[in-house]
Amino acid sequence: MKLRALLTKGEEIRFISHLDYAALIERAIRRAKLPVAYSEGFNPHMKFSFASALAVGTTSEAEVMDVELCAPCPSLKRGTSLPPPCRQVCVSCASFLSRARRSR
Predict the structure, then answer these.
(1) Could you give the CA distance from residue 50 to residue 52 in angstroms, rounded to a whole number?
(2) What is the structure's pLDDT at 34?
(3) Taking CA 56 as the corner, what is the angle to CA 30 and CA 67, rounded to the nearest 5 degrees?
(4) Kind and range of the H or E run holding 88
(5) Could you report the per-residue pLDDT of 37-93, keeping only the tens digit for each?
(6) For residues 8 and 76, what is the distance between their CA atoms, to the nearest angstrom?
(7) Gap between the Cα atoms of 22 and 78, Å rounded
(8) Would you state the pLDDT for residue 40?
(9) Rounded distance between C-alpha atoms, residue 49 and residue 68, angstroms
């Protein structure tokens, strides 16, 4: 199951690099105890990706991120594990979005 989340990157963290921002999101996912899928291999990593990397010094009102889960998540708490400069705008099931786009 894949989730698509829209996140914000506020003024307070606009000078944080993309790798540090990805580490921040990884810690937030771990803190929320989501059943995230991990890559297979010697050093497994969480399976999540951003649509594009923001340049240092820019902010965003809607940054798209996909997260792959290994089990269905019954309840998603809205952005409770994110630090204050980040905000979760919305979360939806990515497989539902892709089916809706194909049916048009």
Answers:
(1) 5
(2) 83
(3) 30
(4) strand 86-93
(5) 999 989 999 999 999 888 999 998 888 888 888 887 665 555 456 666 555 555 655
(6) 17
(7) 19
(8) 92
(9) 9
Q: Is 18 helix (H, G, I), strand (E, B) or coil?
A: helix
- With CA atoms as reference, report the closest residue to 22 among 49, 59, 51: 49
* Amino acid at site 55: A
Q: So what's the pLDDT on residue 43?
A: 94
Read off the amino acid at residue 65. Answer: M
**Helices marked H in 1-104:** 18-32, 94-102
Residue with tokens 């009102």: 61
Tokens (6 digits) for 63: 């940054």
Q: Where are the beta strands (DSSP E) in 12-81?
A: 48-50, 60-68
Check: CB of residue 21 under 8 Å from CB of residue 29.
Answer: no
Single pTM value for the model: 0.72
Do 80 and 62 contact (CB within 8 A), yes or no? no
